[in-house]
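not sure who needs this but someone in the group chat was asking about ABC transporter permease from Microbacterium allomyrinae so here u go. i didnt clean anything up, its just raw.
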Amino acid sequence: MDRLIDLLPELWAATAETLYVVSFSLIFGGIAGLLVGLALYSTREGSLFPNRFLFGTINVIVNFFRPIPFVILLAAVQPIARSVGIPGIGPEFGIFAITIASLFAISRIVEQNLLTVRPGVIEAARATGASRTRILFGLLPREALGPLILGYTFIVVALVDMTAIAGAVAAGGLGEFAIVYGFKQFNPWVTWAAVLVIIVIVQAVQFLGNGLARRVLRR
């Protein structure tokens, strides 16, 4: 317990590092995943911009990367990160790896939630003269906003989990803190302190996400 008290500054620093990695991974992966999800939705047969070849290509790429366990993906993308000037360890590498992992999961969530929008809504928009581009980037995300918020909430929780796993390869955050000061030094107090902070972060994210989705769905 005394060791945990001594390590409190490192614990708060690791917490800030985890939030930093999660935030930037969500920004980069969230935007990229949204665009890929919109492309999947719009190019499928019977959609706004049907293109069998383009849909098939994107679909295969997403299906290729999604099943890869994150701990294996960390090792696989390390040489790629180094080739573009990103260190193979540290928070920047964590952001790089988590962004790649999350964008493919987000793209599926976006695609599936857009598919829940009733066809009648799209037909009504087309009948009033709305362009297909306006429907894709304006109407559809707005109609599916509630489910999208819940989907992104789920992703943020997954990102927190990924940062903990990334700590195993010295990517910083609470995962590295728990491994270095808890597991390797046989100090369960330190390990459980990191676990409790992660639980608090996840609960806060879930509470905010559920609240936002509830407000949107009531409109």
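also The mean pLDDT is 88. if thats useful
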